[in-house]
Specification:
By secondary structure, the protein is an alpha+beta fold. The chain has three domains: about 120 residues, Orthogonal Bundle (Butyryl-Coa Dehydrogenase, subunit A, domain 1), CATH 1.10.540; about 110 residues, Beta Barrel (Butyryl-CoA Dehydrogenase, subunit A, domain 2); about 150 residues, Butyryl-CoA Dehydrogenase, subunit A, domain 3 (Up-down Bundle). It is about 50% helix and about 15% strand. It has eleven helices and ten strands. Strand 9 and strand 10 form a beta hairpin. Helix 8 runs antiparallel to helix 9. The longest helix is centred in the middle third of the chain and has 35 residues.
Length: about 375
Amino acid sequence: MSAEQAETELFQAMIVRALEQEVTPFYEQWEEAGEIPRQLWHTLGQAGMLGIDMPEEYGGAAASFEVSQLAIEEIARMGFGGLASGYNIHANIVMPYILHLGNEQQKQAWLPAMISGQVLGAIAMTEPGAGSDLAAMRTTAERTEGGWRINGAKVFITNGLHADMVIVCAKTDPKAGAKGVSLFLVDTSLPGFSRGKGIKKIGQHASDTAELFFSDLIVPEEALLGEEGKGFAYLMQELPRERLGVGAQAIGASEGALALTLDYVQQRQAFGQRIADFQNTRFKLAEARARIDMARAYLNQCISKYHQGAMTATDAAILKLMLTEMQCDIAHECLQLFGGYGYTLEYPISRFFVDARVQTIYAGTSEIMKEVIARSMLGK
């Protein structure tokens, strides 16, 4: 066993142990409540699960990128889809944005606190009138004495109810289209910031999702992340990592659903034999196994490309499209094998089913992914 494999196994054992102790006993309560307690992020920080691949100088473990994706996969595999989404935003998206785009002052101000769980992060792109069409956003940031004045609203923001800091996408030059977008690190304790009620969803209930409002919110000059006007380019630059995280969620959730189903069909009897003994069951599960293994091979290929700085927007789109559609298909087929029991909340397969549905919508819909892939072959 190589040193890298040994490190991965060590981290995997640590991640599973932390989840079994701190999440498994309480997750159903959080699903019913519609949110994860703020304290959990402190707990995950103390367990070393936040910022796993962040540099040690900021409090991270400096582990490999693969280990950070493994954490997302394990959370999803255990059936904690809502937590996986919140974790992906905080640890796999917001932290890397700051690490890659922030100056040293910004890194010191936010990363240690995010890694400890003291600060929970979110990113605010989507608006009531601008989802996949980011260039149509209406939130503005105008220069003012010593800083910026932000006005606008964002919707469907994961971690929105508890976030202490939000990366806000805003137009700094409304006439420049995509080239007029900038990113800001917004402290949610500032006057002018407010949150709507939690949005009730059909799945991922424990993931708090909120609408955010900015009314003459003044942020200091140093809140600008990266350069003015380069926000859209930064979003495109960081999208591959976001979609890798969604892919890791898809693989983990598919593995989790398959494991539950394998166990069930070997115990449940119908017409004098196990459900597992019917050819249809065997073929459906064989297809699921084959699709997951093929998907994992492509995920690993993309992770390797990401390491080399060679992962393209098209690679990310193919990954996001195929793995999330696979996840929805497998959740559907697995639930079917549970029969009526699969439609009850008592059986966790039902949660895998509803939690999967949003995966083909957020982080770029399947339709947008197809368009990205088509443009790589045919142009606009």
